[in-house]
Write a structure and sequence with these properties.
single chain; mainly alpha; two-stranded antiparallel ribbon; 8% strand; globular; binds flavin-adenine dinucleotide
Length: 198
C-alpha cells in the first residue's frame, strides 16, 4: 500500500529502552480504503492472516534471542577468562562459573526449541504452539542470559564500554512484542486444555 494513502499516518517512536539502532514507527489507519491489489488474503479474514504471520514471527523472535544469548555467553566467557582479581581469573570462581553455565544452558535449550519449530515448518506440520513455546522460553532466557552476563562483568557491565548493557536493553523487548510472555502462556494453556482463558 503506498505510504501516501489517504488515512494512513506514521509517527516515529522515540525514547526506546533498547533496539536503538532500529527505527520504530506507529502506523495509524483511519478510514483507509485498501485496493484489491493490496489485499493479503480474502476480505474480512484479516485476523487469521495476522495470526498466521505471528506464528512464524514468533520463531524469528526466538531465533534472534538465541543469537543475543550467544553474544551474552561469548562476552561473559571472554571477560571471565581475561579479568583477574587477587591474582587469578574470575572464571576460577565457582559462582562465576555458575553464571556462565546458566547462560549456556539457557542458550542451548532456546536453540533446540527454535530448531524444532523450523523442522516442523520444513515438514509442513502444525507449529503454532511449538512456536509460542520457543518464543516464550527463548525471550525469557535471553533476558536472563544478558542479565547474567552483565553480572559477570561486575561494574563494567553497567557502562557502555562493554556490550552487555546493550544486550540486556535489547533483550527486554523480546518478552513483549510478537505477543507478550503472558499471551504465549495463554496460547500454550489453551492448546493443551482446549479451554480459552483469554
Ligand atoms: C520496539 C517495539 C516494536 C514493536 N513492533 C511491533 C510491530 O512491528 N507490529 C506490531 O503489531 N506491534 C509491535 N509492537 C507492539 C507490541 O507487540 C505490543 O507492545 C505488545 O504486544 C503488548 O501490547 P501492549 O503494549 O498493548 O500491552 P498491553 O496489551 O496493554 O499489556 C500490558 C500487560 O498486560 C498483560 N496482558 C494484557 N492482556 C492480557 C491477558 N488477556 N491476560 C494476561 N495478561 C494480559 C500483558 O502481558 C502485559 O504484561 C512493538 C513494540 C515495541 C516496544
Amino acid at each position: 500500500m503506498p505510504t501516501d494513502t489517504p488515512g494512513l499516518t506514521r509517527r516515529e517512536v522515540r525514547g526506546k529502552l533498547g533496539l536503538r539502532g532500529q527505527a520504530t514507527a506507529e502506523l495509524v489507519l483511519d478510514g483507509v480504503r485498501v485496493p484489491a491489489s493490496a489485499l493479503l488474503g480474502p476480505a474480512g479474514k484479516g485476523f487469521s492472516v495476522a495470526m498466521s504471520a505471528l506464528a512464524k514471527g514468533r520463531m524469528s523472535v526466538a531465533a534472534g534471542c538465541v543469537g543475543l544469548g550467544r553474544a551474552a555467553l561469548e562476552a561473559a566467557v571472554a571477560h571471565a577468562t581475561q579479568r583477574e582479581q587477587f591474582g587469578r581469573p574470575i572464571a576460577g570462581h565457582q559462582l562465576v562459573q555458575e553464571l556462565i553455565a546458566d547462560i549456556a544452558v539457557d542458550v542451548d535449550a532456546a536453540r533446540l526449541l527454535t530448531w524444532r519449530v523450523a523442522d516442523l515448518i520444513d515438514r509442513g506440520r502444525p507449529f503454532a504452539t511449538e512456536s509460542s513455546t520457543a518464543k516464550l522460553f527463548a525471550s525469557e532466557a535471553a533476558v536472563r542470559a544478558a542479565n547474567n552476563a552483565l553480572q559477570v562483568h561486575g561494574g563494567y557491565g553497567y557502562i557502555d564500554e562493554y556490550p552487555v548493557g546493550k544486550l540486556l536493553r535489547d533483550a527486554r523487548v523480546m518478552t513483549l512484542y510478537e505477543g507478550t510472555s503472558q499471551i504465549q502462556k495463554l496460547l500454550i494453556g489453551r492448546a493443551y486444555t482446549g479451554v480459552s482463558a483469554f
